[in-house]
Design a protein that fits this description.
By secondary structure, this protein is mostly helical. The protein has 13 helices and no strands. It folds into 2 domains: 1-49 and 67-133, Alpha Horseshoe (Serine Threonine Protein Phosphatase 5, Tetratricopeptide repeat); 135-270, Ankyrin repeat-containing domain (Serine Threonine Protein Phosphatase 5, Tetratricopeptide repeat). α5 packs parallel to α7.
């Protein structure tokens, strides 16, 4: 873990605690005309009170309230923070108050991506039902659909498929959700993606298909054998070689994966 990560965690918690103070102290009122979230989240204490706005025209008490745009931006920011720290109740309250499930932070991450990065499927469900885009990518080219498939969050994968996941979308390595799931040994996710119609023979930037990834990057265990068989049953080309002309069968043979070799040979691999 880098030195900056604890600091970011503390900062996120500070923001959440400050926001909760605002909510409980009446600083956030839902509904048209309600006062929006204070522009500054300030510190942990003080009940969440915002600093008074400067007077205009020299008249005491003539304070201008924060603009709706500023308040909504603060709501959006704190929705992402709430999803990051796993506060489902606060996520629900922020959505009801008008926070956008489409908003992104400086890394391009939505609250939905933040929830999936932290394996909070319950929060992901709420955000998807609130209209979060399951295909929106962050600065690392991860989308909710791709990330859920890579990290074996099958319930979230099902949700993204039901809400318009792009079966042809790719990550920064030009790999599909199927390639990522095959690499990580996510058997049930692989089967789900195959049934959904994700292309089985897509080649990524390394020159590898899902079949090659399962063989080359897997450990030869039963779960990777299951993935190889599922890919072959779905029509994966057993002879689609890598950039060096090495076939899946040869890769499996060189690694001593005898069961995989038999599978590939049954599919006319050589």
């Amino acid at each position: 873990m880098t030195r900056s990560q604890p600091r970011h965690r503390r900062q996120a918690l500070a923001e959440i605690l400050g926001l909760m103070g605002l909510l409980m102290g009446g600083g956030l009122l839902a509904g048209q005309g309600g006062q929006t979230l204070a522009r500054s989240m300030g510190g942990l204490g003080g009940g969440g009170a915002s600093a008074p706005a400067p007077s205009h025209g020299g008249h005491a008490g003539n304070h201008s309230p924060p603009s709706r745009g500023d308040g909504i931006a603060a709501l959006d920011h704190n929705l992402i923070t709430a999803a990051s720290v796993g506060d489902l109740d606060l996520v629900n309250r922020l959505l009801k108050a008008g926070a956008s499930a489409q908003a992104t932070d400086d890394r391009g991450r939505t609250a939905l991506l933040a929830a999936i990065y932290n394996r909070r499927g319950d929060i992901a469900r709420v955000l998807i039902q609130a209209g979060a885009d399951v295909n929106r990518k962050d600065s690392e080219a991860n989308s909710p659909f791709l990330l859920a498939a890579a990290t074996n969050q099958i319930d979230v994968v099902r949700l993204t498929l039901a809400h318009g996941a792009d079966l042809n979308s790719t990550d920064r390595y030009d790999g599909t959700a199927l390639i990522a799931a095959s690499q990580h040994g996510n058997v049930e996710v692989v089967k789900l993606l195959l049934s959904a119609g994700v292309p089985v023979d897509r080649v990524n930037q390394l020159g590898w298909t899902a079949l090659l990834e399962a063989i080359i990057l897997g450990d030869g265990s039963s779960r990777y054998e299951d993935i190889v068989q599922a890919l072959l049953d779905a029509g994966a080309d057993a002879n689609l070689a890598d950039r060096d002309g090495v076939s899946p069968t040869r890769h499996a043979r060189e690694r001593g994966y005898k069961t995989m070799v038999k599978m590939l040979m049954r599919s006319r691999g050589h």
